Amino acid sequence: MIEIIEINGIKIKTHPKVYVPAEDSELLIENLVDVKNKTVLDVGTGSGIQAINAVKQGALKVIGIDINPYAVDCAKINSELNEIDSKKLFFKTGDLFKNIDEKFDVILFNAPYLPTSDEEKLEKYLNYAFDGGKDGREVLDKFLDEVANYLKKDGIIQILQSSLTDGNKTIEKMKKLGFVAKQTGSLKFSFEELQVITGWKKWKLLKS
């Protein structure tokens, strides 16, 4: 069913083949780093809610990318619904960083983090939003392995994931890849904890 919902003042027109923003989306919005006058890449943009919020928070330029073509169309509609300046927000279809040929100040990723067996897979396009592979880390680890190539030297990454895929593993991997990383937001449920993990390039912190 298609409907219009509102989260943190952002209107979102839903689509049956696109992830509907929920508590995880809201948590990332509430813990967004300062993006004023910065360039932002929103990986796995879905409905476009994080990209739209980044523009609203003063970002200079935002690109949202998603492997799901229905998500890209949905995000464009939501950008117009929220009267976002089309000169500041752009959407592309692509798997993680494919079709991205520039570097950014901030990169966001609400990762597909659920451990998923073959029997648990959903309809093709919606499955992209949830399926993290058998251990839940398949897409997340691939993102981490590639992200530094698309960050400016003083760049920041923010990831939304679940305790089901072990935030400590993410932090340790980020440290090995040259980041200072820590959990900067969380929301607990009976069965999991949603976690915002933020990473900064080490050299920037040493410099300051």
Structure report:
This protein has 208 residues and is α/β, with parallel strands linked by helices. Helix content is 28%, strand content 30%. It has helices at residues 23-30, 49-56, 69-81, 124-127, 138-147, 167-176, 202-207; strands at 4-7, 10-13, 39-43, 61-66, 89-93, 104-110, 151-162, 179-188, 193-201. The strands form 2 sheets. A 7-stranded mixed beta sheet has the order 5-4-3-6-7-9-8, sandwiched between helices. The model has no long low-confidence stretch (mean pLDDT 88).
Brief account:
This protein has helices spanning 23-30, 49-56, 69-81, 124-127, 138-147, 167-176, 202-207; strands at 4-7, 10-13, 39-43, 61-66, 89-93, 104-110, 151-162, 179-188, 193-201. By secondary structure, it is of the alpha/beta class.
Q: Which SSEs are present, and which pair or pack?
A:
Blueprint: E1 4-7, E2 10-13, H1 23-30, E3 39-43, H2 49-56, E4 61-66, H3 69-81, E5 89-93, E6 104-110, H4 124-127, H5 138-147, E7 151-162, H6 167-176, E8 179-188, E9 193-201, H7 202-207
Parallel strand pairs: 3-4, 3-6, 4-5, 6-7
Antiparallel strand pairs: 1-2, 7-9, 8-9
Number of helices, counting only DSSP H or I runs of 4 residues or more: 7
- Oligomeric state of shown chains: single chain
Average pLDDT score: 88
Sketch the topology as an H/E string, one letter per element: EEHEHEHEEHHEHEEH
Q: Unreliable stretches, pLDDT < 50, 5 or more residues?
A: none
